[in-house]
């Protein structure tokens, strides 16, 4: 017999910008953060038993993320985590300072009660051969499976916040050995 | 400091056909299982620390899968699992009898030493609005995170083999309550 | 100095169905003519000085087009041509009997006052590697350039109605030499 | 009866760069002219009776095109036109100075013996919602239909070289009234 789950998994998705959301502006002749993209990306995925609440915080290139902006991201996550309104939180973020934000969250919330996953993309969703769909899909899958904690998810890897490092040569995330290096 | 994992995660991907691999044959004017597709799907994903070994078993619509074909799928999985050459196994399969094959595997291999994940798609990879990329990406992510066992992964859900059921109305997989119903 | 044309080119686009409009029905597990597609195809093109009026006549596979349906297509074209409300007419049609309809139009309207272009596709618009966009774009371009008459346009070729023949081996349209063969 | 044309239509396609060929460089985090794209665009089109000879001249943003580079483009076209080896010539070019190059060609070749068509795109081929495929398809169609001369083809419009003007507001080409303004 079939019994559908009465409650769906509650996922809070916080959008902060980053390469994943860049789109081509034909007037300026370059990629910009001009319009929301995450909503369309999620729309193209199928998650019948996940209630996805998208909250748009900002739309910045993470290289330009200011201290107060990063603090705002951390504060929002803390508020959601404390309210207990989400079974997991996924944050889309530029890859350049994703590790910095991850560590800030881990520091501020040393014992989270739910998984907090940061992801992004090396190629914008609206550009050919993008890794955006894969990363978003895998971040959502990981959000349902990992123990509470703060992680980065990219290219099929789940890495604890303290260990995330961007590999600029191979354009992916890797796991560093030295835990104490912030 | 950065230390790359010397050993990559070893994933064995067995392709059996199904809707996920159907392509349009302009001569016949319909979708057919005429050429391998899984290889291209995987090629479009980025998994720098996963060694993906694709083995093509067959290319059948799962409604047409014969007893001996299903047995061949189970036998191959058993051989790989026993050889210990894979850290996880993902099987792409038609959705109509994916549950049947999953249960056959669970029966034959009651205590697997690695995750065995079955997935597929409701819409072919080579057709608009396909769920193929999402399901493959999430199956691979789940293969790295779940405990050894036999599961179906589709649309962001991980369901134990004994509980998988295809929901023909909503065109997804659901989890049944009644474990003893085979 | 720039002077924009006060009057835009008036294109009437009649949709009759055909392979070009087939979409995947996940319930039936096959391609069907279930929802309008031409509107989306045209939406994806940019024609700032063409006023495109889409009229949906029917949605049939051209192999199944009945005599009265074909007559309805011809009658509608005749009405538009006589009313003089279009500078050109483009008809999307299944490729199997496109030539038949083209000849019926040419017979009924021996001296058209505008170009009448029939086109379609060998692969549906909503399937990978489709020729739909190319054919639609080229049919619209031809509609602006050719002398009044009845033509089939496919794969970069413009062929007079009496000469159109479907090449089932190479899956394209060719021009036959023998004009009198209807 | 079917008689295939013994001689195919000979199209010479000269690639000079421009927005149409820009691709995302994940290392630099921006769009660049780093790899040839026109070959792939043409590969995705179907032209069974056109022999397309692609000649890559350069890969520059047309805002940066130097006088000697523009002269090289004109010289190559002149050589091909004089040799009579092409039934038509299509040039892919950045849209910013496409009009300049068109006029230079028209000046150098006042009585061409074949159509010479310049086209490009407002959005790169490898970016979402690109007009590249439409413009290329329509440029090729126009090359078969127009009288010998020099033209710009974009967004379904064919404009004589002397009249082409880029509309920076609506991001398309328009036809100016004043012929003598170079």
From TrEMBL, chains A, B, C, D:
Q: Which residues form a coiled coil?
A: none
Give GO MF terms, alphabetically.
Answer: asparaginase activity
| The organism's place on the tree of life at top rank | Bacteria
Where are the catalytic residues? 19, 95
Residues that coordinate or bind substrate: 62, 95-96
**Which Pfam families does the annotation name?**
Asparaginase
Q: Which InterPro entries would you find in this protein's record?
A: Asp/glu_Ase-like_sf, Asparaginase/glutaminase-like, Asparaginase/glutaminase_AS2, L-asparaginase_N, L-asparaginase_N_sf
Location of the L-asparaginase N-terminal domain? 10-166
* Name assigned to this protein: L-asparaginase
Native organism taxonomy = Bacteria, Pseudomonadati, Pseudomonadota, Gammaproteobacteria, Salinisphaerales
């Amino acid at each position: 017999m079939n019994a559908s789950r009465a409650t769906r998994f509650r996922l809070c998705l916080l959008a902060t910008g980053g390469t994943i959301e860049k789109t081509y502006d034909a007037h300026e002749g370059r990629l910009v953060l001009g319009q929301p993209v995450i909503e369309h990306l999620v729309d193209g995925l199928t998650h019948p038993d996940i209630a996805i609440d998208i909250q748009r915080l900002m739309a910045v290139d993470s290289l330009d993320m200011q201290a107060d902006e990063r603090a705002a991201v951390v504060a929002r996550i803390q508020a959601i985590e404390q309210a207990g309104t989400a079974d997991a939180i996924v944050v889309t973020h530029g890859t350049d300072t994703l590790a910095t934000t991850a560590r800030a969250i881990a520091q501020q919330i040393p014992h989270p009660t739910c998984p907090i996953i940061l992801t992004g993309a090396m190629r914008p969703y609206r550009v050919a051969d993008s890794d955006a769909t894969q990363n978003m899909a895998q971040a959502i899958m990981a959000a349902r499976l990992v123990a509470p904690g703060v992680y980065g998810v990219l290219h099929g890897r789940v890495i604890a916040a303290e260990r995330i490092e961007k590999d600029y040569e191979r354009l992916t995330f890797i796991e560093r050995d030295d835990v104490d290096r912030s």
